[in-house]
Design goal:
Length: about 150
């Protein structure tokens, strides 16, 4: 009398199915967590500049950069009238014009600490309460800050 039967089955089909589903769920979870840690978009990150705005004795404004660094290529000075939402000034930072003067303290291709922008109010396109920003395309690099 042999008390032990010989069987070729390792586990029952129900247990095997449960194990396969559990392993699939765990692998899918690991894949989701991994994919969420990958960088989004094109991988370019704009640096936000630290700026302060002061009114000068002549009635103009000086925007001083205190921290950060950004390339000046395709960087625009933008001044928006908050009452209408209209961009009264939207010019490249290195484009000579009546509205502002860019002072690069290092004479390099970056705007960084120590640089300044003098906004000229005599053109009537810049006034107290307007919003100042530095923008590149749809990205805001500095601001918006209200002119005092």
């Amino acid at each position: 009398m042999n008390r032990f039967r010989k069987r070729d089955d390792a586990v029952s089909p129900v247990i095997a199915t449960i194990l396969m589903v559990a392993i699939t769920v765990v692998l899918a979870g690991v894949l989701v967590v991994y994919l969420q840690t990958l960088p989004q978009g094109a991988g370019t990150v704009e640096t936000t500049l630290g700026t302060s705005i002061e009114k000068t004795a002549q009635g103009n404004w000086t925007v001083s950069v205190s921290q950060g660094k950004a390339k000046i290529v395709d960087l625009n000075v933008q001044i928006v009238n908050p009452n209408t939402g209209a961009k009264t000034v939207n010019y490249g930072i290195t484009t000579p014009n009546w509205y502002f003067v860019y002072n690069d303290n290092n004479v390099n291709s970056y705007i960084d600490a120590g640089d300044s922008i003098l906004l000229n109010q005599t053109t009537n396109f810049v006034a107290g309460g307007f919003k100042f920003s530095l923008v590149r395309g749809e990205n805001t690099i500095a601001g918006p800050k209200e002119l005092p």
